[in-house]
Amino acid sequence: MLVENEGNLEIDGSITLPESVFKASGHLENFNDPLIICEKCHTPYRVDKLIEEKIGHEIPEGAPTEFFDAKITELKLVCPKDKEPFKGKTTQFNMMMKVDIGAVKGVHAYLRPEACQSIFLSFPRLWKTGRMRLPIGIAQTGKAFRNEIAPRQGLLRTREFDQMDVEVFFNPAKMNDVERWDEVKDYALNLYLLKDKQVHPISCEKAVEEKIVSGRIAAYYLARTQQFFSSLNIPLEKMRFRELEKEARAFYAAETWDFEVQVDTAWIELAACNNRTDHDLKTHGKESKQDLSIKEEGTPEKFIPHVFEISAGVDRTFYAMLDANYRTEKRGAEERTYLDLPSAIAPYDVSVFPLMKKDGLSEHAHELAAHLREQNLNVFYDEAGSIGKRYARMDELGVPYAITVDYQSLKDRSITLRERTTMKQKRVEVDDLDEIFWKFSTGQRKFEELEDG
């Protein structure tokens, strides 16, 4: 949705990058977390998280160390492990993971802490060779690494994780020139504003007119981000873009909206949407001693493109998607569990089962599964256990449809097609399946519209 549908590009950049890249980007100086170490047990802690657990709300992680020291004293914080008061001072801990490369000692590099730096490095070449026209997004998905002080909460905070980024390059003088603006101008964004710390559904048009966001490009991509997460079946009422104050933003951001989703009773950040201005190309150009400014056709002067970023955690998104689509329901004395995943992200399109493993049913089911795979459907085949247990296994995996080949199938080439969420079944002709699944995939037909043959 944020790549192909928008006509954006996608690259695959290096995981290991030279030290000069992160000197230019500012990560070596600014990519820090506040650290306190218990002098008795030598356990390291993120000070901001200890304070937040004590006071019940977030504080800016980019605050000066003096702020954290004052809070430690004010709140009388003690080490969670041995209950001893903290006596040391807060320091800034850089989260970059350093590696040595090559045969000569002293050649330093770092594992990337975010997936975007190679996008900025690749932009000049793509601009020269790719016949690009601004605004244009360049996307990348891959591994990132951060030397977290205290990784915890499973998929939510790890030292190695997957990230998906879209960096939108645009002419700052044309911030409001958005070709497909009419598609989103009336679309409501769930904006959690600093002024009253409340969520307000505000149209993209109004957000721009009232200068809540920096311009149409920002509003457009916030809308596309919210729509993407909506496509994962995450309810709108459990989404928000939280406006960040200056002290809480990343060091490169002039504007930040953290996209958050409510999981149980907590809000977790899935994506950061940043207006990075011209920070990246300007600093990389300065470090490399290259002019990274460009000239657009019809524009009299050269300029350095600005960047609006959508940077999302894949692992966090997966966690939130599972939470949003997990269903349990009572059916008599039994409890049914299933994943109500949209068909587009289900692990399989359809499962195929023979009712029994004998009398030629398995052979016919294998033949049908092979045919459906030739039609580019992702098919799971299973013939072990009762048909009810096989249905239940597929429901728990979120597979939207199941086909059962039974004895009637041998007579008239019809099968039973079952829909996961409602568990309703319809009898359809095998020869009609190609058209049925094609129309399912294009949204031209729904299961309930099928005639029961």
Number of strands: 22
Would you identify the CATH architecture of the largest domain? 2-Layer Sandwich
Number of domains: 3
The CATH top-level class label of the largest domain: Alpha Beta
**What share of the residues lie within helices?**
25-40%
The CA-CA distance between the termini, in Å, is 36 Å
Percentage of β-strand residues: 25-35%
What's the number of helices?
13
Mean pLDDT: 92
Shape: globular
Low-confidence stretches: none
Strand order of the largest sheet: 1-8-9-15-14-13-12-10-11
For this structure, what is the CATH homologous superfamily of the largest domain? Bira Bifunctional Protein, Domain 2
Q: Biggest sheet, open or closed, and with what strands and sense?
A: 9 strands, mixed
Radius of gyration: 26 Å
Derived structural class: alpha+beta
CATH fold-level name of the largest domain: BirA Bifunctional Protein, domain 2
Any key phrases for this structure?
single chain; 453 residues; alpha+beta; Rossmann fold; nine-stranded mixed beta sheet; 28% helix; 28% strand
